[in-house]
Amino acid sequence: MKDVFIHPAAIVESKDIGGGTRIWAYAHVMAGARVGRNCNVGGHCFIESGAVVGNNVTIKNGSLIWEGVTIEDGVFVGPNVLFTNDLYPRSQRLPQAQGRYRDKKSWLLPTVVKCGASLSAGAVLLPGVTIGEYAAVAAGAVVTRDVPSHALVKGSPARASGWVCECGARLVIINGLGDCTRCGLRFQEANAGTLLTREIRSAQ
Amino acid sequence: MKDVFIHPAAIVESKDIGGGTRIWAYAHVMAGARVGRNCNVGGHCFIESGAVVGNNVTIKNGSLIWEGVTIEDGVFVGPNVLFTNDLYPRSQRLPQAQGRYRDKKSWLLPTVVKCGASLSAGAVLLPGVTIGEYAAVAAGAVVTRDVPSHALVKGSPARASGWVCECGARLVIINGLGDCTRCGLRFQEANAGTLLTREIRSAQ
Amino acid sequence: MKDVFIHPAAIVESKDIGGGTRIWAYAHVMAGARVGRNCNVGGHCFIESGAVVGNNVTIKNGSLIWEGVTIEDGVFVGPNVLFTNDLYPRSQRLPQAQGRYRDKKSWLLPTVVKCGASLSAGAVLLPGVTIGEYAAVAAGAVVTRDVPSHALVKGSPARASGWVCECGARLVIINGLGDCTRCGLRFQEANAGTLLTREIRSAQ
After folding, report:
1. Which residues in chain A have their CB less than 8 angstroms from residue B9's CB?
2. d(Cα C191, Cα B70) in Å, to the nearest integer?
3. pLDDT tens-place string over residues C105-154
4. Which of A44, A60, A167 sits opposite C44 (nearest CB)?
5. What is the ipTM of this complex?
6. Partners of C164 in the beta sheet?
7. A94 to B56: CB separation less than 8 angstroms, yes or no
8. Could you say which of A195, C39, C54, C61 has the lowest number of CB atoms within 10 Å?
9. Are residues A150 and A128 part of one domain?
């Protein structure tokens, strides 16, 4: 793998790491995990076989990414973010539960974090949720259902709390329209209370 | 220790690990910790001197298990599960608090996770709680009091939210009786709203 | 550095560690981080360049301490405590967000944990908060605003729940006055519901 930085105290067993990606101390990337180009994988992270990470992704320290999790391009995964992939977990070594764990189809639910979204520190995602494009999950939030694009959610369980721009700034929507005061992108409410679409892309 | 797998990047100082147990990268099991047979201790876990882990236990990555914690057979400890053992912690190096830390009896509270229970990702257990047999703590829950057998609790603070079978599936109780639709075990409400007992064990 | 214990499996790149401090397995202290005298830095901790830790601080396992965080003397940082320093994080590799990350002044907010305070297991601190002297943040709490001195806060978001003494014990305040039943310190309400001041220091 060309142009991949692997800290001497990291373990990287995957052969599928994109150029420009850096992996820091005590991180462990298993064989069969895929990590794209130009990513940063913080110290103490764990990326399991079967997990898929896109390009330009920042994964802060201590996050754990399992099989069944797909992280698209440009996502921010804060420190100690927790994914899950089993809605009713039991020890696979418990005799009463072993039957369920013979076949992944019986228990493994996928999670998708779409392009440009942010998961802040310590966020917990229940199995099977999808985080929409450019959405933001607040620190310590427990996400129990899908999060729409550009939505900000917070709390336990996580509830809608506002909207955020592609650049990350809060958006103020008045009469269904809003301009980002930081980067100038314009937004329009598509379905009241559910979705925002970019109206016109201003020059950057 | 026979038939114990220890990843080359793990530190295992305990001599009390049961056969068939596997301990993964960057985990640290201190001398004086006890881990039973046929367990899986995920990467980045820490098991302190004095902690007791039974047989057939699954401990996912990054969980921290302190002195005072007892984990019985067949338990599932999800990733980054947090135990605690001190209700009013201060730095032991703070002069005003040093007196309390001279004797463990002044501060150390025990936690017990009973046979077959599950603690999902990022669950936090306050000191001194007992998690009943086959109970389930949802992801991100903060457990501040004892959890009855077979109960499902979620939220911060964790509240009762339903019942689960030995196999992990949700149970629907009607008129005090319920059959598990997955494994067929039968349940009966013992004391309204507090406990379920297995009525008849169906063939598996 | 004299009298500093560094576990053979830790990485300590900082030259600014005080005497008597111990740093445990799989911890990583970056160059440019400052840690005072007589501290304990637990296993799997990460202390970033620019972070400042005082004397007599206990940092339990797995805590992550970033640039912008100042921890004063005698503080207790429980296991997996999460600090943050960016209110609207995005991947720095996302083209739409890169502008903001060119200059730390655009995004980095400071956090201060004052003398003698305690942050229990899994507490999450939003960026920019100050935790007052001898305050206590309960396990699993998500702190979204400043915490007054001696206050106990809990929940998500964290709310005031009582008062604690310098020694850590709960205080009962009656008619604006309270004595600590454990260590004998006396307290007086300064501004109703907001602050307690030590009235007289009893002999210890």
Report:
1. 11
2. 44
3. 989 999 999 999 999 999 999 999 999 999 999 999 999 999 999 999 99
4. A44
5. 0.94
6. C170
7. yes
8. A195
9. yes
